[in-house]
Design goal:
This protein is α/β, with parallel strands linked by helices and 150 residues long. The protein is 47% helix and 19% strand. It has 7 helices and 5 strands. A 5-stranded parallel sheet has the order 2-1-3-4-5.
Amino acid sequence: MTDLAVVVGSKNDIGKIQAGIEILEKFNIQYELKVISAHRNPDKLRRFCKEIEKKNFKAVIACAGMAAALPGFVASYVDIPVIGVALEGGFPGGIDALLSIVGVPKGLGLASTGVGKSAFINAVIFFLEIMALKEKRYSSVLKEVKGTFK
């Protein structure tokens, strides 16, 4: 069963989240990865968002750089947790992307775990924490993943 959707805004972003992808794979956490730009392909992203609940995903990690509309766009369409990850690429340090994510209007349940590679790893951990609330199998994985950083 695939509980997690991961969406990035461009193919170049995949390398920026690779360390977190390796954690997902090492601990056998099923995920579906999509590359869809909110700015270049809004209709495709809208269609994917409508499929999210049909596919029974439990959460989405949405990653984007620069004018990072992707996480907010996804959060506006779904009623499951969305975790936004700002990626470096525009202003130094990815501050532009971070501000785009944390500056969404009220009414959108969008969390942010920060900027860059560590932010995606933290998003994976946050996903595991959410899932561990209801599913025991995620509790042991969460402890193991957190243990690798001690």
